[in-house]
Amino acid sequence: MTTNPSVGWVDIVVIVGYLLTTGYLGWLGYRGTRTAADFLVGGRSAHPVIMAISYGATFISTAAIVGFGGVAGLFGMSLLWLTFLNIGVGILLAFTVLGEPTRRLGHHLGAHTFPELLGARYQSKGIQVFAGLLIFIFMPLYAAAVMTGGAVFAASEFGVDFEMALLVFALLTAAYVIPGGLKAVMYTDTFQGIVMIVAMIFLLWFTYDSLGGVSEAHQYLTGMADLVPAPLQAMGHQGWTVMPTFGWGAPTYDLWWTVITAIILGVGIGVLAQPQLVVRFMTVRSRRELDRAVPIGALFIMLMTGTPFVVGSLSNAWFAQHGPLLKGQLVKEIDAAKGYALVGLMKEVRPGHWAPVINAKTNQPTLAPMVLSGHETALDSTDKPLNLVSGRAPSVVYAKGDVDQIIPAFITTALPRWFGLVFFLCLLAAAMSTLSSQFHTIGTAAGRDLYERITGRHGTEPSVLVMRIAIMLGLLMSVTISYNVREEYVIARFTAIFFGLCAATFLPAFVGGLYSRRVTRVGALASMFVGLGVSLFWLLLVKSKEAAAIGLVQQVTGGKTSILAGFPNWPMVDPVVVALPLAFLTLILVSAVTKAVDARHLELCFPETSGR
Amino acid sequence: MLGIPDPMVLAAFLGCIAVTAISVIYGVVRRNAAVDEVTREDRAWAIEEKKVEDEL
What we know:
The complex is a heterodimer.
Chain A lengths: L8 H23 L4 H6 L6 H12 L2 H14 L4 H30 L4 H8 L3 H34 L3 H16 L8 H25 L3 H10 L6 H6 L18 H17 L4 H8 L4 H36 L3 E10 L4 E11 L2 E4 L10 E14 L4 E8 L2 H4 L7 H9 L2 H39 L5 H24 L5 H26 L5 H22 L1 H7 L1 H6 L17 H19 L5 H7 L7
Parallel strand pairs in A: 3-4
Antiparallel strand pairs in A: 1-2, 1-5, 2-3, 2-4, 4-5
Helix pairs in contact in A: 1-9, 3-9, 3-14, 3-17, 4-7, 4-14, 4-19, 5-12, 5-13, 5-14, 6-7, 7-8, 7-16, 7-17, 7-18, 7-19, 8-18, 9-14, 9-17, 10-14, 12-19, 14-16, 17-18, 19-20, 19-23, 20-21, 20-23
Chain B lengths: L6 H23 L10 H16 L1
């Protein structure tokens, strides 16, 4: 595999140039109209393109590009359902159905944060504090996913250790976020969005072009179905252009439940209750501005998620056709006509002498499905002759089994060196625009939603200090999580966990608060408790990947990775599928039997429809 | 079609394009349909928002 061993002076000049441009745009913004609030104060309208790209850049991060792109490299193009939901739900539904009611309610109630919006709607200090606490505790998990995504690529691109890349990435984030990146200067967000667009268009064009065209690329990938690694086939993986096998009650359906519930539904629905995105609707001038932002928002999201998911999947075809040659010993023929075989990978330990590559996790020789292209005689490490075959493999083999490495491996191997730098800037842009809003949300959650609500002291110096300390703490927590947790597709999993938690905890109370006059304070609080409680229970004790990593379930069950370990598919089901319906049900039932909301307060919330 | 044999994956591929096209059409058709008015309440909200941002 081609690697770029060091950071050259051109890299440094380009990165510094990019950072200076971002800084200059931010500084220009500070001198004049800079944020959405400034536009609104001045009675002016932000250009819909700027508004849409700024929203999109906050929405899309390195997690989507590196994390979910890598997952598509492993599981295939079924992930495009997530792109479909990102556009259909995250843009079309969010902007046209939730955007305007959120904007109006926020302005009527004078709310400036998501917890404050919920707290003011339900006249509940407890709801605001509960939501603020949840954000403060769990948002660093999502920020860690964003940082890991950037650091993984930087480590691969510049040939440095992950730890070093993470440290540099954290310092860059701190340098960007702490002096002023939090202010969501729209021109800076837009510049970052444009960098992302340019990189994605080139990446998509290059990938299809190098594989002979759209249909040809898909066709080749379809033909590779037999090269799906055996453990994935056992879970229901049928190829990169086919959905996993659907059904219930057997391990062969595990992949379907993982992909659909954990990867697609959690994130696809969870976007509606993302605190840092919901507040964006309140900064919009009018319904007209929201309507006008929909087209660019949709195009942006299609490019930002569709490209990595398609490219991630097609990276398998590219590596199988053009990847560096791998060598090893034939273990089993898969399809002799196509030259597909299972090979025990070997490495040259001294000239002409080959030894098996040992898998660090299993301590067994590494096996890889390959497209064979030749064979030769060589010697093993004990000087015995062996028949060495050579060929190419799917991308996960080149990523050494680490799904988060698939996109970095493809970019550094397949694309020209200069593009690696552009892609790094794209990831830097994606990370910065998302991280700034995440840390802004962490800061306001701690200062405005927790400190001010608990102490009753509003807009004071200590409150600002609390916000700054919270941001520093959030940054430290994120870096610590990134540094310590490096497991299977952790970027996508952290993102999915956070999105799922937000959906189950906030979505019923949020949607109910916007559209129903009958939802009560007790109903909202109960639904939030149920959503969070069921999600945490499921993560700790049922969903095997997360539960096993946390470790509590092994103590409870005497070593099993799920309390439902004997029931196939249950340990793969994401919490959101169980917790969200229960939370909605709780909202409806508890609201039905508790005291209705004061009519005067409802008039304040919904003056447009009062008196009807 | 397009080298994708599974109708569900093909539906996702074409669905992404279709939902984007619907979004574009929606935005174009409704570009001037909604009221564009900044109320006194909106402006008061924005002034407070600026204060929050400046504090941070």
